[in-house]
Amino acid sequence: MTALIEPSDPQYFTETSDELYDRHTYKIVSKTGETINVDNWLQAREIWWNRKAFLSHVEVLDIKKSKGFK
């Protein structure tokens, strides 16, 4: 049987919205304050997973992507 991660563990993740993630851009913030902006949740999740020891948090930026011409 696989043990579950406790909520107090830094690897514990909760989902705060069930809306489509690709409607926003994301700012990934390191523990040293460096940032990376990405255009979709898949990129943010990949960076978070691969560099989680160095990261502080991910911010959802309220920048809607436009499609087509305005």
Please provide a written account of the structure.
By secondary structure, this protein is α+β, with helices and mostly antiparallel strands. The protein has a domain at 21-61. It has one helix at 41-51; strands at residues 25-30, 35-38, 55-61. The model has no long low-confidence stretch (mean pLDDT 80).
Outline:
The chain is an alpha+beta fold and 70 residues long. It has one helix at residues 41-51, and strands at 25-30, 35-38, 55-61. The mean pLDDT is 80.
Write out key terms for the chains shown.
1 helix; globular; 70 residues; 3 strands; 3-stranded antiparallel β-sheet; alpha+beta
Q: Beta-sheet strand percentage? A: 15-25%
Query: What's the overall average pLDDT, rounded?
Result: 80
Assign a percent range to the helix content. 10-25%
Distance between the termini: 54 Å
Break the fold down into its secondary structure elements and pairings:
Elements: E1 25-30, E2 35-38, H1 41-51, E3 55-61
Antiparallel strand pairs: 1-2, 1-3
